[in-house]
Amino acid sequence: MGSGAGGSYGGGSGSQPYAPSYHVEKSMHEQDIKNGTYHDGHYDKNPTAQNINDMINGNYIGNKHTNIDMPYVIDLDGNIILGKRNGNGKDGAPTPHPTLIGGKDPQVQMAGIVHIQGGKIASYDNQSGHYKPNAKSMQVADEAFGKLPSTLFKKKKGK
Fold it and tell me: End-to-end CA distance of the chain, in Å?
């Protein structure tokens, strides 16, 4: 499988304490109000957000030419939701992890970045400045990604 490195978010003050679900960090929520990604009491839903199962095309995520790093969240039902940072925020601010679900208080079990190379999942991590999930939550990601067919993962060299 394509598990990424765990650990705290490199762009902030570390991870939150381990929890079964995470809320948006207060400082990030305030930033989202300024950026226009949170307004009128809620996060808009990123229009590119979709369940990873809906992105599967045979043995590929997308197609064999898909090469992208995409934010993902694992919602409270265990669904992996991906979407592009498409700039729907005010003045083109990128759309953050909470917009993958949208709503007033989008909670997740896990959030990070999934790295897709040649239409295959190369790795995933816990890099989310909005949720800062604890490294222990990687087990949630491993379980959710582990439900996908093995043909969707990039083979490790030597295997």
Answer: 11
Length of the chain: 159
Point out which residues pair with 42 in neighbouring strands.
Answer: 39
Cα dihedral sign, 133-15-47-149: negative
Helix ranges (H only) for 3-157 are 26-35, 138-146
Say what the pLDDT of residue 35 is: 84
Token couple for 133: 């999930």
* CA-wise closest residue to 84 among 43, 114, 106: 114
Other C-beta atoms lying within 10 Å of the C-beta of residue 81? 21
Amino acid at site 141: A
Contact present, 132 and 7 (Cβ < 8 Å): no
pLDDT tens digits along 87-123: 666 677 788 999 999 999 999 999 999 999 999 999 9
User: Per-residue pLDDT tens for 29-44?
Assistant: 888 988 888 999 999 8
pLDDT in the model for residue 89 = 63
Q: Tabulate helix, strand, coil % of the chain (nearest 5).
A: 25, 25, 55
pLDDT score for 134: 95
Structure tokens at 24: 């948006």
